[in-house]
Amino acid sequence: MAMSPKLELRQSQSLVMTPQLQQAIKLLQLSNLELTNYVEQELERNPLLERDERADAPVDAERPEPEVATRNRDDGIRDDGTRGDPAAVEVDTVSAPNGADASGDSNPLDTDYSNNYDAGSTSDGGSLGAEMGLGNWQGRGGSFDSDEFGIEQTVSEDMTLGEHLTAQLQVAIPDPVRRMIGAYLIESLDDAGYVTEPLDQIAEKLGIAEDDVLGVLRVIQSFDPTGVGARDLKECVALQLKEMDRLDPFMELFLEHLELLAKHDLDGLAKACGSDMDDVRSMIADLRTCNPKPGLSFVSDVAQTVVPDVFVRENPDGGWTIELNSETLPRVLVNSRYYSKVAKEARSKDDRAYMTECMNNANWLVKSLDQRARTILKVSTEIVRQQDAFFVNGVAHLRPLNLRAIAEAISMHESTVSRVTANKYMATPRGIFELKYFFSSAIASAEIGGDAHSAESVRHKIRELIEAESAGDVMSDDKLVDVLKKSGIDIARRTVAKYREAMHIPSSVQRRRRMKMSIDA
Per DSSP, what are the bridge partners of residue 510? Predict the structure, then answer.
């Protein structure tokens, strides 16, 4: 068969992700801090972009009002104002259903803070101390009411834990080799003051004997604050008890069985220590005077505060006003005058192409920022509409909700809603919530034809039931299942156990022992 060249015409369709479309998608999922950094980079890269200085200027009475959209349940959006700059603050008003009391209950701040980030150490001092219920330990530097609080702590620049220990190291160890080992150990301490790296690995890295590392570590453990340089919780409190002259043989046995204290098994602890119950309570009292995290009394990384992207405010007529936070909206302008001037003077083709590209990118960035703000407002408005019962009555009335329901209501794709709700926060009369908080799975109703319950509201119900327990009526997981079914929630025992463990709530046996300890104390 002879081969010959020929021409063919084919028609096909394909989805192409242009750089501008990729930029718009990227902007949707950025947090307000990441968005600010991104815009700052674009301002440095693009000569046609300028920061809108009007954002910091006083409000002019003659300046047109920002765009406002009034939205009710029965009609669409009606524009009542003139269009301002691309990043203008937008307000959306949602009316509450007929008969609903928008004022809410007398205590609207019912936010669950159990999932807050713990900036403490990941060593034994954090997890075991929490399980033991000894979060009220008093230690050095733990309070401004301490007698050790002095004028030197009011200076503008505080000393870090590493600097404090290094100053003591210079005096305690004159040998340069051992001082180098000490410097490495101090560098390896976590924020709580614990040595998290095994000593054999440290010795291997430094090319020395493990006994040399242990010898220097013993010196560091004698530094202030007492307990620093410990390898676990037991060693940390042992160092502090030894300094207080309370580390006797019975206390050493007590520290060997701290897991029994974490389980609140006082009878087993007394048997293991060979002491009576009064001695065990006395040792527990001594233990409470120790600081499980001595390093936290010094400067550590400051937690980044959450800046909400959306404000939800209550209207006098019973509805809700949804407003974008203008402080998180970068304001940029395109300098068309500078572009016209430079484009006329550009002689080479490359210069003109560069200026055209800068102009297109600048216009697209302004458009993307405007579209991002409108999309966030649109999604937030629909979330408030869907979860109106939560804003009125609290977390117990949170409805099960998924991304598809919001996407279908506002005619968007699920992926777009997912990007919009990522790393975005909403300030409400009941607290600050991430937009993802309002999306939860459904728990079936125990009644035929009844409404499903949100998983978050079920967790809240479990927490309320456990917090209302008395010493003589501690409910097991099976008992919780029966109580929840009577209230119309069809849930399995393993699901209750999973939710309880996720909220860091101990089992019924441990809760009963803890209540017994508090009563005996």
Answer: none
Distance CA 188, CA 209 (A): 18
CA gyration radius for the chain? 31
Residue type at 34? E
- Take residue 499 and report the two structure tokens written for it: 């939710």
What sign does the CA torsion over 190, 193, 196, 201 have?
positive
**Counts for the chain of helices (H) and strands (E), in that order:** 21, 11
Q: What is the Cα–Cα distance from 221 to 219, expressed in whole angstroms?
A: 5
CA 136 to centroid of chain Cα atoms? 23
pLDDT over threshold 60, residue 317: yes
CB burial class (10 A; 0-12, 13-18, 19+) of residue 145?
exposed
Whose tokens are 């453990």? That residue is 221
Nearest to 398 by CA among 450, 457, 459: 457
The continuous run of DSSP H or E covering 442 comes out as strand 442-443
Contact 295, 228 (CB under 8 A): yes
Model pTM? Answer: 0.61
- Closest of 305, 292, 190, 179 to residue 239, by C-alpha: 292
- Please tell me the distance from the alpha carbon of residue 368 to that of residue 25, in angstroms, as a whole number: 9
Q: What are phi and psi of 57, to 5 degrees?
A: -80, 155
With CA atoms as reference, report the closest residue to 513 among 264, 206, 220: 264
d(CA 75, CA 35): 33
Between CA 452 and CA 463, with CA 457 as vertex, the angle to 5 degrees is 135
Taking CA atoms, 141 is separated from 57, 150, 229, 287, 476, in Å, by 44, 11, 17, 17, 40
Give, in order, the Cα–Cα distances in Å from 487 to each of 187, 469, 499: 55, 17, 17
Q: Tell me if 407 sits within 8 A of 17, measured CB to CB.
A: no
Q: List, for residues 337-395, the tens digit of each pLDDT value.
A: 888 888 888 778 888 888 888 999 899 999 999 999 999 999 999 999 999 999 988 88
Beta bridge partners of 93: 70, 321
Selection from 308, 314, 346 nearest residue 327 by Cα: 308
What DSSP state is assigned to residue 195?
B
Q: Tell me the C-alpha distance between 427 and 79, whole Å.
A: 25
Tell me the average pLDDT across 225-231: 92
Q: What is the DSSP string of 369-403?
A: HHHHHHHHHHHHHHHHHHTHHHHHH-GGGPPPB-H
Beta strands in 32-83 (DSSP E): 49-51, 68-71, 77-79
